[in-house]
């Protein structure tokens, strides 16, 4: 759809069905918080603790890069430089007044480059070929009906509660927080069905692509080049923290690298699975990283905006 939009094809975004798709994404993020994660968190205390520092350092280096080198406005640079997920940062950045197109392309480029680099490395060096990530989940036929009702309730309850509390991006953060609570307390261990998650990503990806209607190709090329530099900075910071965390905690560097790499949760988890590494460790760190950015970034941004309008 991005290519079609840049070629001025007659495409249009299915915006009317966007809200339920965002709810699905929020419930999916919350489902990563499991009782097992809490039980093992003590073993990963140093690693999880430094994760917040990692997010802050990445933001402190990449956001100024987008402002000084890329010429982005502060809001767009902030949500383009945060190491969160594409959909999450696009949703929150849009709510805060950022440039949708720049945020979307910056994160899409970054995730593509990180996943490609990591997968390429392991394919050449380790001889591991990654599988199809579209099967990373459970079919709707295998999710018990009571669990489906619980997951649906997380979205339907979380959105209005977050809106009432004036939480940033309530459509995403509300369902995520309710889903996290439900999964932490063990009311369900199920995640949103594979088919629904894939469909939600298809719709949201389509909407993102259609946002580029009217964007000149030279602008896209410029953002891609900027994203290459930003990704290089992020991976440099990741390498430093990989060494530091492995020295402090004694955890294998390759495992820390997968846990801290600013790629997608599913993609990095698949790499860990292929390596027969600790998938729970990798998935937990990516879930916590995304949650830190989704919940913390908007509040920090609001504080910064009050200090320096």
Give an overview in words.
The chain is mostly helical and 309 residues long. It contains 14 helices and no strands. The protein has helices at 2-6, 18-30, 35-40, 45-68, 74-81, 86-95, 100-126, 145-164, 170-184, 194-210, 217-249, 253-260, 265-274, 279-307. α8 (145-164) crosses α9 (170-184). The radius of gyration is 19 Å and the shape is globular. 43% of the residues are buried. The mean pLDDT is 84.
Looking at this protein, list some descriptive labels.
single chain; about 300 residues; mainly alpha; about 0% strand; globular
Oligomeric state: single chain
Count of DSSP H/I helices: 14
- The poorly predicted ranges are none
Biggest sheet: strands, sense, closure?
none
Euclidean distance between termini CA atoms: 36 Å
Mean pLDDT: 84
Q: Whole-number radius of gyration?
A: 19 Å
Shape verdict: globular
**How much helix, percentage-wise, in residues?**
over 70%
Strand share of the residues? under 5%
Number of strands: 0
Structural class: mainly alpha
**Pattern of helices and strands:** HHHHHHHHHHHHHH
What's this entry about, in short?
73% of the residues lie in helices and 0% in strands. The chain contains 14 helices and no strands.
Topology:
Layout: H1 2-6, H2 18-30, H3 35-40, H4 45-68, H5 74-81, H6 86-95, H7 100-126, H8 145-164, H9 170-184, H10 194-210, H11 217-249, H12 253-260, H13 265-274, H14 279-307
Helix pairs in contact: 2-8, 2-9, 2-10, 4-5, 4-11, 4-14, 5-6, 5-7, 6-7, 6-14, 7-11, 8-9, 11-12, 12-14, 13-14
């Amino acid at each position: 759809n991005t290519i079609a939009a840049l070629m001025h094809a007659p495409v249009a975004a299915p915006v009317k069905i966007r809200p339920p798709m965002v709810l699905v994404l929020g419930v999916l993020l919350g489902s990563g918080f499991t009782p097992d994660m809490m039980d093992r968190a003590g073993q990963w205390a140093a690693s999880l603790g430094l994760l917040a520092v990692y997010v802050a350092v990445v933001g402190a280096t990449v956001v100024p890069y987008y402002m000084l080198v890329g010429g982005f406005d502060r809001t767009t640079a902030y949500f383009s430089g945060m190491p969160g997920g594409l959909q999450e940062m696009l949703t929150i950045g849009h709510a805060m007044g950022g440039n949708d197109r720049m945020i979307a392309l910056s994160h899409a480029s970054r995730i593509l480059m990180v996943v490609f680099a990591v997968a390429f490395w392991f394919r050449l060096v380790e001889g591991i070929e990654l599988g199809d990530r579209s099967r990373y989940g459970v079919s709707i036929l295998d999710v018990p009906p009571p669990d489906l009702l619980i997951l649906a309730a997380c979205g339907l309850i979380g959105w209005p509660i977050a809106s009432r509390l004036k939480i940033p991006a309530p459509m995403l953060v509300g369902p995520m927080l309710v889903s996290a609570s439900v999964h932490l307390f063990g009311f369900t261990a199920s995640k949103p069905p594979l088919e629904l998650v894939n469909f939600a990503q298809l719709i949201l990806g389509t909407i993102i692509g259609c946002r580029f209607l009217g964007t000149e190709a030279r602008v896209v090329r410029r953002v891609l080049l900027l994203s290459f530099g930003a990704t290089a900075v992020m991976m440099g910071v990741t390498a430093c923290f990989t060494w530091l965390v492995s020295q402090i905690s004694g955890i294998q560097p390759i495992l820390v690298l997968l846990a801290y790499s600013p790629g997608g949760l599913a993609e990095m988890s698949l790499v860990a699975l292929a390596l027969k590494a600790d998938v729970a460790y990798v998935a937990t760190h990516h879930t916590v990283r995304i949650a830190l950015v989704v919940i913390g970034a908007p509040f920090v941004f609001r504080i910064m905006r009050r200090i320096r309008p």
